[in-house]
Amino acid sequence: MTLHVDVDRLMNRIDELGRIGAVLGPNGERGCARLALTDADRAGRDLVVAWMRDLGLVVEIDEIGNVFATRPGTEPDLAPVMTGSHIDTVPTGGRFDGNLGVLAGLEAVETLLAAGVETRRGVTVAFFTDEEGARFPPDMLGSLVYVGGLPLEEALDIAAVDDGARVGDELQRIGYAGARPVGALFPHAFVELHIEQGPILEDEGVTIGVVEGVQGISWTELILTGRSAHAGTTPMRLRRDPLLAASRIVDGVRAIADEIGGDQVATVGRFEPHPNLVNVVAQSVTLTIDLRNTDETVLQEAERRFADLVGAVCAGEGVTAERRTLARFEPVEFDPSMVDRVEAAARALGHSTRRMASGAGHDAQMLARVCPTAMIFTPSIDGLSHNIAEDTHPADVAAGADTLLHVLLACANS
Ligand SMILES: [Zn+2]
Questions:
Q1: How many Å lie between the centroid of ligand 1 and the Cα of residue 197?
Q2: At what angle do helices 7-18 and 39-54 cross, to 10 degrees?
Q3: How far does the centroid of ligand 1 lie from the alpha carbon of residue 140, in Å?
Q4: Dihedral (C-alpha) 16, 21, 24, 25: value to the nearest 10 degrees?
Q5: Using an 8 Å Cβ cutoff, are 59 and 53 in contact?
Q6: Burial of 63 (C-beta count, 10 Å sphere; 0-12/13-18/19+)
Q7: Which residues are in the CB-under-5-Å shell of ion ligand 1?
Q8: Are residues 70 and 163 in the same domain?
Q9: Domain tally, the chain
Q10: What's the CA gap between 40 and 213, in Å, rounded?
Q11: Does some domain include residue 1?
Q12: Are residues 260 and 402 located together in one domain of the fold?
């Protein structure tokens, strides 16, 4: 008989956790605001840890506040299999982002316990500190420190963007400055269930996204400077207009994505002329360019074309360009055998699958540095996330959690 999770129990926990820091919308939306290491985050953590202890799991907290709850395996010398995600949210977040992965992990363990199914390896359910980075940049802070990507002391000294409080002090204040050294124990394998946060699965009518990796990201801030001038008295031939140059760059950035094709995406997200007045040729324009691809070579090609575009446009309009790299991450490829395992588990349960890349960052990409890793996506209604209207159908939650359960079982017995 195939094991299945209890989806009602899982949905009830998602709802109960979602009531902490709830943000209610005018049309019945039930969103969430639990920024990292705030009182709301503490209340959310306390609730999830209480559930972990109720199941008899061994709960450990590390020095950056990551929480690990383990159901031991029959062979205690073997490294456990880990699943998990995050329970912090952005200020206008939903109930599912991150929370689904943690609570589905808990549900998978409870299902094993209820069925009396033992595994060779232990199964650990984790939640990582400050995945969103909304209060303490950078994002994925807890998992980054856990895998050794940022020294603990540096992380503890990061100041909050809202009130200036330090990570280390806030961890002490909310009671989550743990004793377990960061990186003390890496798992045998890691798998994270997460909502897609985009529209592809829903659009194609597919239930399970088999995530092969995470897109590489290249963020640039561009400041174009021309010459501020009177809109009535300055002849066109004597203008050096940074707004015109910026507009040509917006157009050209879209053309780069169209020409490269495939899954290349390119976005101008910020666009600020100075001054921003009806009768003045702008002095400068600040804009940001976000380029993403799953292939590092192609991403570099997009960056090259973007540099050429800026050079040509600025020369044509007599405008100067100052550029600053805001973020640059190479694409992450998940372990092929783990990816196969996710696909096989989903199909064995009768779910439709689609291989895809993640367009957003996740704790799993950090864990991929230290152990074989993969991710499972479930559809997001209307592709919405980081939005209080974020939602996922219970049937899709069940499909994702069942897939997680069976990936964990396969890994824990290997
Ligand atoms: Zn998330």
A1: 8
A2: 150
A3: 9
A4: -120
A5: yes
A6: buried
A7: 97-98
A8: yes
A9: 2
A10: 32
A11: no
A12: no
Q: 189-195 and 373-378 as β-strands: parallel, antiparallel, unpaired?
A: parallel
Q: Which amino acid is at 285?
A: V
Digitized pLDDT (tens) for each residue of the chain, 414 residues in all: 899 999 999 999 999 999 999 999 999 999 999 999 999 999 999 999 999 999 999 999 999 999 999 999 999 999 999 999 999 999 999 999 999 999 999 999 999 999 999 999 999 999 999 999 999 988 999 999 999 999 999 999 999 999 999 999 999 999 999 999 998 889 999 999 999 999 999 999 999 999 999 999 999 999 999 999 999 999 999 999 999 999 999 999 999 999 999 989 999 999 999 999 999 999 999 999 999 999 999 999 999 999 999 999 999 999 999 999 988 889 999 999 999 999 999 999 999 999 999 989 999 999 999 999 999 999 999 999 989 999 999 999 999 999 999 999 999 999
175: CA distance to ligand 1 center in Å? Answer: 23
Q: What is the DSSP string of 148-205?
A: TSS-HHHHHTPBPTTT--BHHHHHHHHT---SBPTTS---SEEEEEEE--SSHHHHHT
Indicate the burial class of 261 (C-beta count within 10 angstroms; 0-12, 13-18, 19 or more): exposed
Amino acid making up residue 292: R
Q: How far is the CA of 360 from the centre of ligand 1 (A)?
A: 8
Instruction: Quote the ligand 1 centre to 385 CA distance (angstroms).
Output: 9
* 230 and 318 belong to one structural domain: yes
Q: Ligand 1: distance of its center to the CA of 32 in Å?
A: 13
Q: Are residues 111 and 246 in the same domain?
A: no
Distance of CA 82 to the CA centre of its chain: 18
- The pair of structure tokens assigned to 108 is 């998978």
Q: Tell me, yes or no, whether 186 and 44 share the same domain.
A: yes
Diameter of the chain by CA atoms?
84
What is the DSSP code (8-state) at residue 288?
Answer: E
150 in the same domain as 71: yes
Q: 274: which strand partners?
A: 284
Q: Where a domain ends, among 301, 329, 357? A: 329
Tell me how far the alpha carbon of residue 99 lies from the centroid of ligand 1, in angstroms. Answer: 8
For residue 320, give its domain range: 216-329
* Distance between start and end Cα atoms, the chain: 20
